[in-house]
Amino acid sequence: MPALDDVRVLDLTQVLAGPYCTMLLSDLGADVVKIERPGGDLIRPNPPFVGDDDAYGGYFQSVNRGKRSLELDLQVEGDREDFLRLVDDADVVVENFRAGTMEKFDLEYERLRERNPEIVYASIRGFGDPRTGETDRQGQPSFDLIAQALGGVMQITGQEDGPPTKVGPGIGDLFTATLNAVGILAALHHRDRTGEGQYVDTAMYDSMISMCERTVYQHSYTGDVPKRRGNSHPTLFPYNAFETTDGHVVVAAFGDNHWTALCEAMDRPDLAAEYPTTGDRLQNRDHLREEIAAWTVERTADDVCDVLEGGVPCAPVQDVADVFEDDHVHARDMLVDVEQPGADEDVTIAGTPIKMSETPPTPGERAPLLDEHRDELLGDGARTADADD
Questions:
Q1: What sign does the dihedral 259-265-270-271 (CA atoms) show?
Q2: Claim: this prediction has a pTM higher than 0.85
Q3: 52 in a domain, yes or no?
Q4: Do residue 19 and residue 157 come from a single domain?
Q5: Total structural domains in the chain?
Q6: Shared domain check, 335 and 309
Q7: Region 12-34: what's the mean pLDDT?
Q8: Same domain as 338, residue 268
Q9: Is position 219 within any domain?
Q10: pLDDT tens digits for 211-269?
Q11: Among residues 11, 31, 173, 206, which one is catalytic?
Q12: Distance between CA atoms of 39 and 73, rounded to whole angstroms?
């Protein structure tokens, strides 16, 4: 029995942040009903594709697995009534519109709470909702790039002499989505104890500040503004990437025991003796980085890791092809094959990192076709696609 098999989620979200949040809940067993605008989620037609007849692209498939789809136009009275009927029996509503959008449909949290006092209503926005703290940024559009820029991520990402750089994955979306899922689960726990629903709000800007917690305390303690350091760390050394003959490895040997083990593997006990403390190593990090780099650059990544493994935290820098070939990844079920509608072959998407002994998540079902589940969701009340209000 999945952990959330008694939870129904009405998912009004699209693109990435909201769908990733509700995908996590779906993986945990929730019945996630994806309420899609006319024409469907904006991301349905985005590439990549397997063939010319694919029903949707990889972007949509990756974060909408295991959900049911219902196409509704919330500007139409009849569709709003259908949505409200679903709210009556729902546990959670999630949306990622701009602040004030649901009010235009007369479907805001307060209206839904009147019909279902136990409803947990969650929003994901660039700058949060006025209910939880009003600012003049609310109502502005936001994307991952905006959140990473404002929250300080880009300012500390990239090479020291390079420009501000965004992190590769859309962490402004994904981290915010994960925090929203945590908030939803906490709200459900509170509801189960008290019978009281509530509003859950996570903002992308807020989430990036939380993710950059290190820069906050550094600025508070020292008054300095942390800058870009490439692959290094401001208070730990060695903690960096080093070139090899066939790629790069990362080495995290900042502890005294790991530093000693690294120096022994390099056949450089003199370095361990001369720089025995964290302060010594940080003060002389440029010189020591050159010493380590001179050792790794003459070896393959595998050779470096073979020598260090077990004594010093290290790893090769892998690309996604390496990930696909890693036995660990397959043993952990982190690659999942699902059906690709319109193609004659399955496709692979990322599995769930949440592992549970008694209620294991099951991220094995494909994303839905648009409006695929209308009849089973609305039953005799299902309206035809061209019905008016």
A1: negative
A2: yes
A3: yes
A4: yes
A5: 2
A6: no
A7: 97
A8: no
A9: no
A10: 999 999 999 999 999 999 999 998 899 999 999 999 999 999 999 999 999 999 999 99
A11: 173
A12: 10
Strands of the sheet containing 31-36, edge to edge, are 68-71, 31-36, 8-11, 92-95, 120-125, 198-203
Residue 229 lies in a domain: no
Tokens of 332: 């952990």
Are residues 293 and 152 part of one domain? no
Measure the CA–CA gap between 62 and 24, rounded to whole angstroms.
12
C-alpha angle with apex 74: 200 to 341, nearest 5 degrees? 90
Residues 180 and 103 in one domain: yes
Token look-up 């349905």 returns 44
Both structure tokens of 105: 């449909």
From 270, 300, 319, the end of a domain falls on 319
In a domain, 225, yes or no: no
Helix (H) or strand (E) run with residue 119 in it: none
* Joined tokens for residue 253: 């040997």
Does the annotation mark 173 as catalytic?
A: yes
The whole domain housing 141 covers 8-211+330-381
Kindly report the length of the chain: 389
CATH code: domain of residue 308: 3.30.1540.10
pLDDT the model gives residue 384: 44
Q: Which two tokens stand for residue 354?
A: 């949440």
95: left (phi over 0), alpha (psi -120 to 50) or beta: beta
Q: Per-residue pLDDT tens for 135-164?
A: 999 888 889 999 999 999 999 999 999 999
- In the chain, which ranges are continuous DSSP H helix? 17-27, 58-63, 77-88, 101-104, 109-115, 144-151, 171-194, 204-211, 213-222, 256-265, 269-274, 278-283, 285-296, 301-308, 320-325, 327-331, 374-378
Please indicate, yes or no, whether residues 268 and 147 belong to a single structural domain of this protein.
Answer: no
Q: Considering only CA atoms, which of 127, 163, 123, 162 is closest in space to residue 146?
A: 127
